[in-house]
Automatic annotation (TrEMBL):
Matching SUPFAM superfamilies: Chorismate lyase-like, Winged helix' DNA-binding domain
The protein's name in its UniProt record: GntR family transcriptional regulator
CDD domains: WHTH_GntR
GO biological process, one term: negative regulation of DNA-templated transcription
HTH gntR-type domain mapped to chain residues: 46-111
PANTHER family xrefs: MANNOSYL-D-GLYCERATE TRANSPORT/METABOLISM SYSTEM REPRESSOR MNGR-RELATED, MANNOSYL-D-GLYCERATE TRANSPORT_METABOLISM SYSTEM REPRESSOR MNGR-RELATED
Ranges for region Disordered: 1-48
GO molecular function, one term: DNA-binding transcription factor activity
Keyword Transcription regulation: yes
InterPro entries per record: Bact_HTH_transcr_reg, Chorismate_lyase_/UTRA_dom_sf, Tscrpt_reg_HTH_GntR, UTRA, WH-like_DNA-bd_sf, WH_DNA-bd_sf
Keyword annotations: DNA-binding, Transcription, Transcription regulation
Length: 280
């Protein structure tokens, strides 16, 4: 495999494409704030579909994960509304992960996967919840460092960088897409020695890397057409984008990471502490 790009054999995967902007480049400044989607207009009462959505949400709590929902007609008769109104309410609940399709029926969604915002790996986070983590290789290649990658990894523009892109799986379900960038100068044997189906952090720790800290940014985005195809999700589904630069105990960057998670399947947690010097 030395010196060559390695691609997954799955026929569902498309050829690798470069991201439209550098993987660690900050997103453009947002425009004017859009109205919050809480279902309540600035003046007046919530729209009918939103009221129905709240009622169905309460039904979901009673049924529990995996239970089959009543049909649209049954909900329409129960709440005295049209099937179109029920359909819109269920559509929004599906985007939120509260409802999932099962054949021609709708079922109550499973609890979201919880990923801690720590230096624990994806594998460690999933195993901690009793889930079976997995990865599917998309591409493993050498790239020339872009200006943003050169800054993040503290290397020269054009220097060789390893790009490892993998689908993230939880119990065989595709839940995310992750790209990791590492300097070839620091890890020259990685592309030959590392098994992409295993934990990268476990490999790096075994190689002597001691992780110390990271800067991480979280945004809500929509997946690109390529990402939609790879993850197998709806183009309308909100995604959670995490970009991170991880450093070792010497303060040297180890990796730049771009992770895209399904918004209907993930939530993130963080442990907060009082700053050492409280701000008055």
């Amino acid at each position: 495999m030395a010196g060559a790009a390695h691609r997954a054999a799955s026929a569902t995967l498309t050829p690798v494409q470069r991201p439209l902007r550098d993987p660690i480049e900050p997103a453009p400044a947002p425009g004017p704030l859009a109205a919050a989607r809480d279902g309540v207009p600035e003046h007046g009462t919530p729209p009918k579909y939103f009221q129905v959505k709240q009622k169905i949400d309460a039904v979901l709590d009673e049924l529990g994960p995996g239970a089959t929902l009543p049909t649209e007609r049954e909900f329409a008769d129960r709440f005295g509304v049209s099937r179109m109104t029920v359909r819109q309410a269920i559509r929004e609940l599906r985007l939120e992960g509260r409802v999932q399709r099962s054949g021609r029926s709708s079922v109550a969604g499973q609890p979201k996967l919880v990923q801690p915002l720590t230096l624990a790996s994806y594998t460690e986070g999933m195993r901690g919840q009793g889930r079976r983590p997995g990865r599917q290789l998309v591409v493993f290649e050498r790239l020339a460092a872009t200006p943003a990658l050169a800054t993040g990894l503290r290397t020269d523009v054009g220097a060789p960088v390893l790009h490892l892109e993998r689908l993230l799986l939880a119990d065989e379900e595709r839940v995310g897409l992750e790209s990791t960038y590492l300097a070839v100068e620091r890890f020259p044997a990685l592309i030959e020695e590392f098994d992409p189906a295993t934990s990268l952090y476990a490999y790096l720790r075994a190689a002597g890397v001691v992780f110390a800290d990271a800067d991480e940014r979280i945004e809500t985005v929509l997946a690109s057409p390529r990402e939609v195809q790879l993850i197998g999700t709806s183009p309308a589904l909100p995604m959670l984008l995490l970009t991170r630069v991880t450093r070792d105990r010497d303060g040297t960057p180890v990796e730049c990471v771009r992770s895209l998670f399904r918004g209907d399947r993930f939530s993130f947690t963080a442990h907060l502490t009082e700053p050492q010097e409280p701000v008055s």
